[in-house]
Specification:
The strands form 3 sheets. The protein has an 8-stranded mixed beta sheet with strand order 4-5-6-3-7-8-11-12, with helices on both faces. The chain has a single domain, classed as Rossmann fold, CATH 3.40.50.300. It is built from 5 helices and 12 strands. Helix 4 runs parallel beside helix 5. It is an alpha/beta fold. Pathway: tRNA modification; 5-methoxycarbonylmethyl-2-thiouridine-tRNA biosynthesis. It comes from Stentor coeruleus. InterPro entries: Elongator_complex_protein_4 (IPR008728), P-loop_NTPase (IPR027417). This is Elongator complex protein 4. Pfam families: PAXNEB.
């Protein structure tokens, strides 16, 4: 009896193009960045507000690449977008490297861009929501009005920074599902930063609708993790049809924060007697 179906070769893994997030270490961990057409969620930290630096680097990468930026937050922050940091090729990041990886820095690190978080540049495509319930309508109208023509293919980045997105489950599901469909249709990248709702149903609705989730957790002053001031945990690995972050070897990473720049790296055990780093206030 002959088999009904014979697979002669492995199915090819379909893939969407990626775009850099804007933090070299995170882009390296994600093997090139985040997929276009996806919704990324970050649950912010409580004290040092490293998520602000993540948001700024996300926008800095877009501004550097001359993308159209759409920013939505319920507070006004002047000078939100940082410029590229000036760095020498011999010391591209000026960041202290984990002791175990000293001497193992790849040559490709020279080409990575860091952003100077102590400075800012002006950028025209900044928007603020009139009200949260009408947020999707405003996003849709802002993007439609920004199109130069029906064939405008300029890359777009959407940042939504809200302290909380508490709402009825049906309203939240409708908003996130519509937002994700919009991001898919124009191959944009969207970063949503908000607290996870305490209501289990709202929390489930949020996690169901995002494509990729991360959480930032501050370390206190007594930590023995040396250079690391916070951790970045993957709360929802990317799962989009046949796509997946199969290259992720860990779900927990360390955040290194210097006065000018921020980066993400694999956790390494510091030397015995390593001194913890205090959380930065900014």
């Amino acid at each position: 009896m002959e088999p009904v179906f014979v697979r002669h070769s492995k199915p090819q893994k379909k893939s969407l193009p990626k775009t850099k997030f804007g933090i070299p270490g995170l882009d390296s961990i994600l093997s090139g960045g985040i997929y276009q057409g996806t919704l990324t969620f970050i649950e912010p930290d409580s004290y040092s507000k490293h998520y602000i630096s993540f948001a700024r680097c996300f926008l800095g990468e877009g501004a550097t690449n001359k993308e159209k930026l759409f920013v939505y937050m319920n507070q006004t922050i002047d000078g939100f977008i940082p410029p590229v940091a000036k760095q020498s090729k011999s010391n591209p990041s000026k960041m202290r490297i984990a002791w175990r990886y000293e001497g193992q820095v790849s040559q490709t690190a020279v080409d990575e861009k860091h952003y100077d978080l102590t400075k800012s540049i002006n950028y025209p495509h900044i928007h603020h929501p009139a009200s949260v319930p009408d947020l999707y309508t405003q996003i849709y109208n802002d993007i439609s009005n920004s199109l130069d023509s029906s064939t405008d293919t300029t890359h777009k980045r959407i940042l939504i920074l809200l302290p909380s997105i508490s709402s009825e489950a049906a309203q939240l599901n409708s908003f996130l599902a519509s937002l994700r469909a919009l991001v898919r249709s124009i191959y944009a990248v969207c970063l949503l930063i908000s607290e996870v709702p305490s209501d289990p149903l709202l929390s489930f609705t949020l996690l169901k609708n995002i494509d990729f989730g991360m959480k930032i957790t501050d370390f206190d002053d007594k930590t023995d993790l040396g250079e690391y001031c916070a951790s970045l945990s993957i709360t929802k690995p990317l799962s989009l049809q046949s796509l997946g972050n199969f290259e992720l070897r860990s779900l927990n990473f360390g955040i290194v924060r210097e006065p000018k720049i921020i980066d993400v790296s694999n956790f390494t055990t510091p030397p015995v007697g390593g001194v913890g780093k205090s959380a930065l206030e900014y």
